[in-house]
């Protein structure tokens, strides 16, 4: 089983850019070390936040192909529209099935785990709704246990607040981190990266007109944060503009890559 190796502040009331204090979480992540090695096969379980714009896995693949060194991680995306983690049968997903190219079976058993890492992306209200949060906590813990028993590493994706509710980022971030800490899983700080990008460049549209789902720029940022976290590597110098016939302007993609690495390094306390 793979395992995880387990400032500047306020000045005149203004959060200084580039400081760890600039991030909007107050609960600190407990699992902060990089993965022991670069994953080769990943599963991302979630909902429409992850499948918009041809899927965040296509953005992640774009970063992997254009980066140095080139990464060849395979990524399976399993999403349910408007779904919560409770909708997903994790044990079923991690079991061998006929014709599954990721499953090498001998005598009815897997010869090795199907996935190195499994990413859990909850419903957008999972961390902010008093009604939904207990289920978010319940299924992160249950799924993390199932994932570890299958020989994989569980990780939790922090989503983002709706466009017209930016004040919810603190609650969203702190709830996600607390739940992940209790389950001894790593958090991927996508929502914090969204808010950092909005803070620095509010005119950049990260949302679709519904004020909830990611625009092409939002999916690009999501993918850049995944790349930064999974491979412990900056995407800043990667010449890649996006997917799904929605390439971003060079200055926009460069900005989002910088924000992704800035957020990830500050969140985990990594050296740049």
TrEMBL record:
The keyword Hydrolase applies. Coiled coil: none annotated. Residues 1-22 form the signal peptide. GO terms for molecular function: hydrolase activity, acting on ester bonds. Keywords: Hydrolase, Signal. This is SGNH/GDSL hydrolase family protein. It comes from Sutterella seckii. The lineage of its organism: Bacteria, Pseudomonadati, Pseudomonadota, Betaproteobacteria, Burkholderiales.
């Amino acid at each position: 089983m793979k395992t995880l190796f387990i400032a500047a502040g306020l000045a005149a009331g203004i959060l200084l850019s580039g400081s760890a204090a600039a991030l909007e979480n107050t609960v600190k992540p407990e699992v902060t070390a990089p993965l022991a090695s670069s994953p080769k096969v990943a599963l991302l379980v979630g909902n429409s936040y992850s499948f918009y714009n041809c899927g965040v896995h296509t953005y992640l693949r774009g970063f992997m192909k254009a980066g140095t060194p080139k990464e060849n991680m395979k990524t399976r995306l399993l999403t349910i529209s408007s779904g919560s983690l409770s909708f997903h049968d994790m044990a079923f997903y991690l079991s061998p099935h006929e014709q599954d190219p990721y499953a090498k079976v001998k005598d009815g058993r897997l010869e090795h785990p199907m996935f190195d890492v499994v990413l859990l992306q909850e419903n957008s209200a999972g961390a902010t709704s008093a009604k939904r949060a207990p289920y978010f906590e319940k299924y992160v813990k249950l799924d993390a246990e199932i994932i570890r028993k299958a020989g994989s590493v569980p990780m939790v994706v922090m989503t983002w607040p709706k466009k017209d509710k930016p004040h919810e980022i603190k609650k969203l971030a702190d709830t996600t981190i607390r739940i992940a800490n209790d389950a001894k899983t790593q958090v991927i700080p996508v929502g914090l990266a969204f808010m950092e990008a909005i803070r620095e460049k509010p005119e950049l549209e990260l949302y679709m007109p519904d004020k909830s789902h990611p625009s092409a720029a939002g999916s690009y940022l999501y993918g850049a944060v995944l790349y930064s976290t999974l491979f412990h590597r900056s995407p800043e110098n990667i010449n890649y503009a996006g997917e799904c016939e929605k390439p971003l302007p060079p200055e926009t993609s460069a900005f989002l890559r910088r924000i992704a690495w800035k957020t990830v390094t500050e969140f985990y306390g990594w050296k740049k």
